[in-house]
Design a protein that fits this description.
Length: about 180
């Protein structure tokens, strides 16, 4: 359980080579803030920030190519009406995996982190099929479909989370809000 205002850093395994040979002042680091229904995939160093409550953020990282991506979705599954949108978990994760593949990633080498799915309203906590629960379940189902290893699940609870994810090395910090 994360305590309020506590940052929980994550860094990939020490055996993975780092980009320390290029000074950070030389590397241009892009920063992005993701709103619900958005995603960011980058082969360049990028720091992505997003805030989730019942929504879910899925972060993917390729430790071989050192590229990453993040999606932030609101609803679990697209019902087929209208245009498919990354506002839906199934569409968002499909799109995220495909964009990572377009940059050269192989699905079997991808690693995932899942955040969010909090049930922030007391009146919804008694429902078996709460939106927050369904959002987490679709992430797990889609990642299992692609055989992507889930390294981190910081899901559920009663508070939102602020996630700061670095696509260049797969590291992140999480703060409950």
């Amino acid at each position: 359980m994360i305590r309020k205002d506590e940052l929980r850093p994550f860094s990939p395994a020490a055996s993975v080579p780092r980009m320390d040979s290029v000074p950070s002042a030389v590397r241009k680091v892009i920063t992005e803030f993701l709103h619900p229904g958005q995603m960011c995939v980058s082969s360049e160093p990028c720091t992505v920030t997003t805030i989730v409550g019942s929504c879910v953020a899925v972060c993917l990282w390729d430790p071989v190519l050192w590229i990453g991506g993040v999606t932030h979705y609101i609803l679990a599954q697209w019902d087929g009406a209208g245009q498919p949108s990354p506002r839906y978990g199934d569409v968002a994760i499909d799109t995220l995996v495909n964009k990572m593949s377009e940059l050269g990633s192989h699905r079997e080498q991808l690693q995932a982190h899942i955040f969010g799915g909090a049930c922030m309203f007391e009146s919804l906590r008694l429902h078996e099929h709460a939106l927050s629960t369904m959002n987490v379940e679709i992430a797990l189902k889609m990642l299992a479909k692609y055989k992507i290893k889930v390294l981190t699940q910081q899901v559920g609870g009663r508070k939102g989370r602020k996630i700061v994810y670095k696509t260049s090395d797969g590291s992140f910090t999480v703060k409950e809000i």
